[in-house]
């Protein structure tokens, strides 16, 4: 994720939320037939962030990127019937409330909310559309104030914040923060203060909580030069609702929602929707996933009748490699790395040491993949391996950022050196087929460990587990997908080589599996970092 955010956060506690991997999120809002704001933006956001989206429509708005043409408010009974249809049948984990429009609609939603309050309620007090057009009646402002206390989080933009407090709109970030704090204190509700409307070249945001003296979270990043910011407010508030229901952690939810939205704004110009203030790209991270799925399908078709690639017993060459390394996996599964990471009992120093070694390892693994890419006999394999090499380089850069605070120079441990020397030598000078077999365990065991961690520590949240973020990153389907494709490659290659080379592939795979096991065990065995004394 490209961001120059400078977050400063402290733990922020509130009523307990039971995290759910796929939260059921209801949006109560108006519509936008051009898909950039309101219900349509909310449903895209919920799906993009892994939730299950539902919608109850408050108003049918004929609008586009240039402005609002007309608003039709369905009879109140229709809104009540929609809300009841959802709550009579579905457990709602989070609700996001957007455009309400009028006093009777506010009262209707308030009544339903009082009787059916889900664990997460985010209220975006929508008043005016970016492109112009009032979305809240003038006489509804005080009714809106009267429902703020029912929310866990309120997300006004600066003009809305001013209306809610009945003061002049803030023109500086300090003033905005002070108004946000005043709203939080008056209504005893968290407030997401958004600086998108401030003049200047930065867009600061902050999460303020009742009675606090400093924000629970604050970040700022350069303004992205685009006019396509239609629906950013709807999108941000919904993203926080989904993530809060998913993690139970408001600070983390705001931070992640913000970074994700930033990327959606960054890629907004790709969409080319409308001639005014266009929408943001809610599906920005899915495009890559679909590319990979299409590529996997192409690779799988390329291997004809032996295309079975499931981890089950499919009779493939890679399956036989896997079966022959069951002892290694058993050691990994029972070893201190997986068990202490899953329990959260791994000492932080050991974890940091593991990350530092991983960084050193990935630098060389990236080179190993690049060497194979250069030597690849076919275009599709070159693309796959080069993409893997680039992914490792990106991962290395991210690890550098994570480890920036550990400062001291870290040297490769004996195991890390042994593993990387083996990979570099094998991928550079052995038969290409042997090289691809040597790099497979890193893909495959990584994805497999992700599954083990997800099973041993299901649904962990940042609030209750020190390594929650790491565990969920490990079980990312992206890794399973990459491992699958690496298997397809090795199976394909194995069919075209002699039994002798197949045997060498088998030996290389086995050796790399053993080194993987040692690599995970090593930081736990050593119990701490392997560093060069500073100044050497
Ligand atoms: N040009 C931009 N570059 C980067 N971030 C932006 C930009 N415009 C808006 N944002 C971000 O989008 C979010 C919504 O901000 P904003 O203050 O505009 O709220 P809003 O007015 O409710 O949104 P909307 O435009 O949908 O009504 C904030 O996190 C803000 O930082
Ligand atoms: C139904 C609906 N809800 C909210 C907004 C605000 O979004 P924006 O200010 O980006 O136009 C909107 N335009 N339409």
Automatic annotation (TrEMBL):
UniProt-listed NCBIfam families: HMP-P_kinase (TIGR00097), PRK14713.1 (NF011301)
Gene Ontology biological process terms in this record: thiamine biosynthetic process; thiamine diphosphate biosynthetic process
Pfam family, one: TENA_THI-4
PANTHER family: HYDROXYMETHYLPYRIMIDINE_PHOSPHOMETHYLPYRIMIDINE KINASE THI20-RELATED (PTHR20858:SF17), PHOSPHOMETHYLPYRIMIDINE KINASE (PTHR20858)
CDD domains: HMPP_kinase, TenA_C-like
Sequence ranges assigned to domain Pyridoxamine kinase/Phosphomethylpyrimidine kinase in this UniProt record: 32-281
Gene3D superfamilies tied to this protein: 3.40.1190.20, Heme oxygenase-like (1.20.910.10)
InterPro entries documented for this protein: Haem_Oase-like_multi-hlx (IPR016084), HMP/HMP-P_kinase_dom (IPR004399), PM/HMP-P_kinase-1 (IPR013749), Ribokinase-like (IPR029056), Thiaminase-2/PQQC (IPR004305)
Nucleotide-binding recorded as keyword: yes
Biological or metabolic pathway of the protein: Cofactor biosynthesis; thiamine diphosphate biosynthesis; 4-amino-2-methyl-5-diphosphomethylpyrimidine from 5-amino-1-(5-phospho-D-ribosyl)imidazole: step 3/3
Keywords: ATP-binding, Kinase, Nucleotide-binding, Thiamine biosynthesis, Transferase
Keyword Ribonucleoprotein annotated: no
Taxonomy of the source species: Bacteria, Bacillati, Actinomycetota, Actinomycetes, Micrococcales
Reaction(s) catalysed (UniProt annotation): 4-amino-2-methyl-5-(phosphooxymethyl)pyrimidine + ATP = 4-amino-2-methyl-5-(diphosphooxymethyl)pyrimidine + ADP; 4-amino-5-hydroxymethyl-2-methylpyrimidine + ATP = 4-amino-2-methyl-5-(phosphooxymethyl)pyrimidine + ADP + H(+)
GO molecular function: ATP binding; hydroxymethylpyrimidine kinase activity; phosphomethylpyrimidine kinase activity
Reported function: Catalyzes the phosphorylation of hydroxymethylpyrimidine phosphate (HMP-P) to HMP-PP, and of HMP to HMP-P.
Domain Thiaminase-2/PQQC: 336-520
Official protein name in the record: Bifunctional hydroxymethylpyrimidine kinase/phosphomethylpyrimidine kinase
One Gene Ontology term, aspect cellular component: cytosol
